[in-house]
Design a protein that fits this description.
3-stranded mixed beta sheet
Length: 694
């Protein structure tokens, strides 16, 4: 991955790396405790009684013999000897039978005691097993709570950053609102990192409105040129050498014609180079146009001489430069064509003023420009900037980032030269194409480039994009992305404000169909990864799952609709986790690419692990959400794999007599100490110990 200062953030990827832990662990239900069965005790006593019946009968007979012998002996009916013998026999029989009865009772009590001991041991084992199960349940509950906390509070939006070595990003498709979101998402962190950003808005749709609002909110005073009105104050293309100026002007003219071969372009370049040599080598576009009028014999050259665009001697030199006859006619005709095209650029650089240095520069083509004017102005800006980049010193990768919106209007060779100049100087290049014509299709992803596909309304373009991506990829579209895509439209007007040439702003009168509803309310600095401001709205807020209310109207400022729309979409749900849940899955097919949300992008690039295809959201308001992070999903997963699980609470530290803290063993939560018991869920139902065990 590139260094933080060289990172290019293309959008946000929705993912939940920490899976949902599922339901809480069930508390163990204690088994019914063992107890002495009354039936078993009664059966033992009944059996003992049956076994002792003969002994009891013998004991009773012995007692009767003793009583009868004593009574008869006392009455004199029996002699003393016979009576004594009878009593002695009765006593012996009673002693033997009584001892046997006593032993039986003793054995019964021993069996009862043994049974009670056995039941006691079983109950102790059951209680020990129950306590161990409850302790294990408490541990599992703590782990589940930590996993649940990590799941509910994890980041859900991760930055999408191409790896190091990527020097160009090709954005194919998209709407004006999608381009505005993409431009703000990519350029805002570059400005925040201290880099320079240049935007060539050739779309005629004021796609840089949100980015300009962000820059002004950050205290950056951007420079904005709106062409053709600001051509006199445009310093791009001025001061070029002869060959460079001839190259710029010949390419600017060639865009309006179908060039059959390079011979026509070289012929124009030769004419312009000779004309510029006559003008002294440092000519302006207005001077070249006047020289071409003199060469083509258009109008009165004295008017141009009076205006100071050309001198009389230069007029004479131009008229005598080329021969007569067929060559003269060819040159005159070509000079006429060149003059008719370059007159649209005649005012370039005629009213230059010193401009302050600023990290953000925007040059846009107005919708007031005609079809041919728009093509000429777009090519002139691109080629002139290409020459400026060639003369610039190399910078660290992406330290200077160039955005070209509407690059499909440029010729293929113009795109190639711009890409080569940016690659040689380390300038990051982002090319945005509304459509995919053949010359663009051949250049998508060429070299070390990443390709991002946005909404492609044209069926042929969508089919070509699906074939390039591969239809086997399956993506999950976030509910927030889907909601924003339904909310943002391209029907609201927006305007550029020209800031070149004066301290006070000069409003331009042209407008473009871009933007959404303006937001109102107080602003405050957000907590998210981007240095954007939040717009607090009484109707737009979110209720987090923890019960804390927080406004997430994260936008570039109060006039940026992306943050307000994001806030509304998030605030309509019950919780942040619910609002950012997955919406639907789809395959990369033609009809799916035609129905992508406005800010959705499918990004593909070559990474260390092979070709990567990622679904991202370019909504700049996501950067202000608390669920967004500047870490990539791969970095978060790597960190998650290297981090130990959430530790359990440490045992209390007891204060020793010497005043030092000593770690003690954690006391049992059943011993009545002052620590709160663990959260074990609802208590189990009480057992009825009087109920007989089945």
């Amino acid at each position: 991955m590139p260094r933080p200062a060289e990172r290019l953030y293309l959008g946000w990827q929705y993912a939940t790396p920490v899976p949902e832990p599922g339901p809480a662990p069930r508390r163990p239900v204690p088994q019914e405790q063992e107890r002495l069965s009354p039936d078993w005790a009664a059966a033992q006593r009944r059996e003992e009684y049956l076994l002792n019946r003969p002994l009891r009968a013998a004991f009773a007979v012995a007692v009767a013999i003793i009583v009868v012998g004593i009574a008869l002996g006392a009455a004199g009916w029996l002699s003393d000897l016979v009576a004594g013998l009878g009593v002695i026999c009765g006593v012996l029989i009673a002693a033997v039978s009584g001892y046997a009865i006593w032993q039986g009772e003793r054995a019964l009590r021993a069996r009862m005691a043994d049974e009670r001991d056995r039941i006691g041991r079983i109950r102790e084992a059951q209680e020990s097993q129950l306590f161990a199960g409850q302790a294990e349940h408490a541990r599992r509950v703590r782990e589940w709570q930590s996993l649940r906390f990590a799941y509910e509070h994890q980041k859900r939006w991760y930055a999408v950053c191409p790896p190091g070595g990527i020097h160009r990003v090709d954005v194919a498709g998209g709407t004006l609102s999608g381009w505005a979101a993409m431009l703000t998402t990519v350029a805002a962190p570059r400005l925040a990192a201290g880099a320079e950003v240049t935007v060539l808005d050739l779309s005629e749709g004021s796609a840089a409105q949100d980015l300009l609002a962000f820059a002004r909110n950050r205290g950056i005073d951007p420079l904005v040129w709106v062409l053709p009105d600001d051509l006199p104050r445009l310093d791009l293309g001025t001061g070029l050498r002869t060959q460079a100026l001839a190259d710029v002007l010949s390419l600017a003219v060639s865009v309006t014609e179908e060039q059959g071969s390079t011979r026509d372009l070289s012929f124009d370049h030769a004419i312009l180079e000779r004309v510029i040599d006559v003008l002294g080598g440092t000519a302006t576009v207005g001077g070249v146009t006047a020289a071409l009028r003199a060469l083509a014999q258009v109008g009165d050259p004295r008017d141009d001489v009076a205006a100071g665009l050309i001198t009389a001697g230069q007029v004479d030199t131009l008229t005598a430069m080329f021969g007569r006859g067929a060559t003269d006619r060819v040159v005159v005709e070509r000079a006429w064509v060149l003059e008719s095209q370059l007159r649209r650029l005649a005012a370039a650089g005629t009213a230059l003023v010193p401009l302050p240095r600023t990290p953000l520069r925007v040059a846009a083509v107005s919708r007031r420009a005609g079809v041919l004017d728009s093509k000429v102005l777009s090519t002139y800006l691109t080629v002139a900037l290409t020459h400026a980049l060639r003369d610039a010193e190399p910078v660290p990768p992406w330290q200077h980032t160039l955005f070209v919106l509407g690059a499909d209007r440029l010729r293929g060779d113009t795109l190639d030269r711009l890409s080569d100049a940016c690659e040689s100087t380390g300038t990051g290049l982002v090319l945005a194409y509304r459509s995919i014509p053949p010359h663009v299709r051949q250049r998508l992803g060429r070299g070390n480039a990443a390709v991002a596909f946005m909404r492609l309304g044209n069926a042929e373009d969508a089919k070509a994009a699906s074939e390039q991506l591969g239809t086997e990829h399956r993506f999950v579209l976030s509910q927030l992305t889907e909601t924003i895509g339904l909310s943002v439209t391209d029907t609201t007007a927006g305007t550029y404000t020209s800031t070149t040439g004066s301290v006070s702003s000069v409003a331009d009168s042209w407008s473009a169909s871009e933007g959404t509803t303006r937001g109102t309310g107080s602003s405050w600095t957000g907590q998210g990864p981007w240095p954007v401001s939040f717009s607090r709205n009484a109707q737009a807020g979110e209720s987090l799952s923890s019960g804390v209310s927080e406004s997430v109207s994260a936008g570039i400022n109060s006039s940026t609709a992306w943050g307000v729309t994001t806030s509304t979409a998030t605030g309509d749900s019950e919780s942040l986790a619910l609002a950012l849940q997955r919406s639907r899955e789809f395959l990369v097919e033609q009809h799916q690419l035609q129905q992508l949300p406005a800010s959705a992008m499918i990004i593909t690039y070559a990474g260390p692990a092979g070709r990567q295809v990622v679904m991202a959201d370019a909504n700049p308001g996501i950067g202000g959400l608390s669920a967004a992070t500047t870490m990539t999903l791969e970095e978060f997963r790597a960190r998650l794999a290297g981090v130990a699980p959430v530790p359990l609470p440490l045992p209390r530290r007891a204060q020793s007599s010497s005043g030092q803290q000593q770690q003690t063993a954690p006391p049992s939560w059943r011993s009545g100490d002052d620590r709160p018991p663990p959260n074990l869920g609802p208590p189990p139902p009480r057992l009825d110990w009087r109920r007989r065990r089945p």
